[in-house]
Design brief:
Keywords: Membrane, Transmembrane, Transmembrane helix. The protein has helices at residues 7-33, 36-65, 71-89. It has 90 residues and is mainly α. It has one domain (7-89). The chain is flat, with a radius of gyration of 17 Å.
Length: 90
């Protein structure tokens, strides 16, 4: 279909596809149960899944770029991800 030959790109897209399927499943479950409490619980679960997916996909990408980036560049990227989480907590 798309002809992806890079295993890192394939891995990152697979992680995002799985994440999207989890989101769609959660939406269907919210409709099925038709309860504010259950909807809140499902949404809370998704709040945990989202950051994990971001960290996993970013980690896979960094592994793939390890031979192309300097140590300083990798450190700045990791610091950026950490700052995203710090910003969310503020």
């Amino acid at each position: 279909m798309f002809g992806i030959k890079d295993k890192i790109v394939l891995s990152m897209s697979a992680i995002r596809l799985i994440s999207g399927m989890i989101e769609l499943l959660a939406a269907c479950l919210i409709f099925k149960f038709n309860s504010r409490i259950v909807a809140f619980e499902i949404n809370s679960f998704l709040a945990l899944v989202g950051p994990l997916v971001m960290v996993l996909a970013t980690s896979v990408g960094l592994i793939g770029l390890a031979d192309e980036l300097s140590l300083l560049q990798m450190g700045v990227i990791v610091l950026g991800v950490i700052l995203i989480f710090v910003g969310i907590k503020l």
